[in-house]
Amino acid sequence: VLQWACNKCKNLRELHVIECKIRSDTLVSIVAALPRLRALSFSITTFADLKRDVFALAKSTLENIRFLHIYYTSTELTIMNYLGEHATLLDFCDNIEEIKVGSAGMAVPELYRPIISNPEKHVKLSSISITNNIHAGAQMFFYGTLSQLPNENIHWKTLLMPNVNFVEFSKKREFIACLNHMEELENLDISGSKVSFPNKVMDMERGISLKYLNLKSTNVCSTHLKSIASNCSMLTSINLFGCVRLMETITFQDCDGNNVEGSGVAALFQHCPKLEHLNLAGEHHHIFPALTHVIRAIKDLKSLAIPTCMLCGEDPNSRISGKRIMTTRYGAIAPK
């Protein structure tokens, strides 16, 4: 039915068939018949479905693809498979701008290494992301592909790498090159990583264009947050869930240049006036009243996630004026 419908829609520009049971040869036939296709999302169960030879029939369509989302479904493998090194469909994606790798859950890994025959063709890339790091096959494809790309010549706008093994990441020249143009990066996710700050490789002081930053469950503290805030004034969303040292008292300059004492979170409000979303949940922070005056000062704040313990206290001045508090098992959220 899907193949028949797609054959009737020759001008289709987007095709998203994640979690649809489609044989790889059928998918290739569908894609080959859609010359105007620009965005493609599909599911696989094995790396073998991504091999270059499999997609040869759809080469002309893939040359014009801008967005590619590959989703690994969860499979039950009884033994570990070794597949070796192979070129993938990316060899045909000359104009690709965004790659996303997703997965359903954990799986017994296949061992393989994706190869890009002509990496320089992919300098138009600006976004690459993986949704999580629990599926071994998804990890191998994501980091294997990333290591093959000409990162020193790519001006990344989006790097979403939750739970990245930053110790190993910072040892490899091909990965370090991803951050050569840190000042142009707009979206960064290194949540759950063991990155330490300050860091020469992940130099947050160069992140002057950052809008979205996910530091969930990292070792960031008040001092580091102050440095991030003072250099990343374009931030609109920051996730600090589970960061335990955010409320340490430090000295920083306010907007008028006066030295004041407060936490790294207070410095965040002082230097990031465009902030819309802030997640402080996941840890105990018992100084909510001290933050309310700066929270109220952020006119564009749309959502605030905080631990429920910050709601204690009977001082009426500790309430966020004009914002309604909702509590969940993960914290409290104050929507606009």
Structural class: alpha/beta
Rg over CA atoms, rounded to whole Å, is 23 Å
Flag low-confidence runs.
316-336
Order of helices and strands: HEHEHEEEEEHEHHEEHEEEHEHEEE
Please count the helical segments.
Answer: 9
Report mean pLDDT, rounded to a whole number: 83
Label the overall shape.
Answer: elongated
Terminal CA distance reads: 44 Å
Helix content: 10-25%
Could you tell me the strand content as a percent range?
15-25%
What are the salient characteristics of this protein?
336 residues, single chain, two-stranded parallel ribbon, 13-stranded mixed beta sheet, alpha/beta, elongated, 21% strand
Account of the protein in words:
The chain is of the alpha/beta class. The protein has nine helices and 17 strands. The chain has helices at residues 2-8, 24-32, 59-62, 136-148, 166-169, 173-176, 222-231, 264-271, 288-297, and strands at residues 14-17, 39-44, 67-72, 81-87, 98-103, 110-115, 127-130, 158-160, 187-189, 212-214, 237-239, 250-253, 259-262, 277-279, 303-306, 326-328, 331-333. Strand 2, helix 3 (59-62) and strand 3 (67-72) form a beta-alpha-beta unit.
